[in-house]
TrEMBL record:
Lineage of origin: Bacteria, Bacillati, Actinomycetota, Actinomycetes, Micrococcales
Domain of life, source organism: Bacteria
Protein name: Cytosine/adenosine deaminase-related metal-dependent hydrolase
Residues in Amidohydrolase-related domain copies: 47-165
GO molecular function: hydrolase activity, acting on carbon-nitrogen (but not peptide) bonds
């Protein structure tokens, strides 16, 4: 489509330096091609802009079949103790599966809100960032958090909640380590306010 969202039953797309430079009807004329241009014949295919997934919890891919018929709070109270045992290996595998499935269905940009950080789970945020790199999607990782554990009336086990100072420090460190603010960035980090988990 062009800026007016014109659909071309037969058309062409010109990509220059990773950006769409032109879209138009029919085949691109020979006179408009450069000698080193690579032409990909997409006859019989549909070309659409990549889809954007705006909210995900990729680590939950690992527990998709558990407590399926539960209410929200039944589901959370069943799964928080399970999620409290995730580590970077589980998170990396779940993120690879989830992002791989998204990519297969046309998603080229994904956002994940990760907020479960078991104290002995390793670098779970880094694991999902590496999964996005391997799968090849543009990624916005949100470094979330929870600060209200079961002992204080919250739902999650205490060993996955963090104090506010710890949350702020970890969020700043994630931005410092991973965030790429460049216009063509394939990785950005966001850090929302603490999640109260109630």
């Amino acid at each position: 489509m062009d800026a007016a969202r014109t659909e071309h039953r037969t058309g062409h797309v010109v990509v220059d330096g990773g950006r769409v430079a032109a879209v138009g009807p029919g085949r691109l004329a020979e006179a408009d091609r450069r000698p080193d241009d690579r032409v990909v014949d997409g006859a019989g295919c549909v070309a659409t802009p990549g889809l954007v997934n705006t909210h995900h919890h990729l680590y939950q891919w690992a527990t998709r079949g558990i407590a399926c018929d539960s209410t929200l709070f039944e589901w959370l109270t069943t799964l928080y103790p399970v999620w409290a045992g995730i580590d970077e290996d589980i998170t990396g595998a779940a993120a690879t599966a989830g992002l791989g499935w998204l990519a297969r269905t046309g998603c080229t940009t994904a956002m994940d809100h990760h907020y479960v950080f078991p104290h002995d789970g390793g670098d779970v945020l880094g694991a999902e960032i590496e999964a996005a790199r391997r799968v090849g999607v543009r990624f916005l990782a949100t470094r979330g958090s929870m600060d209200l554990g079961r002992s204080r009336g919250g739902l999650p086990p205490d060993h996955v909640v963090e104090g506010l100072d710890e949350i702020l420090a970890a969020s700043a460190a994630a931005v410092e380590r991973h965030h790429d603010p460049s216009p063509d960035s394939r990785l950005r980090i966001a850090s929302p306010r603490a999640h109260r988990s109630r």
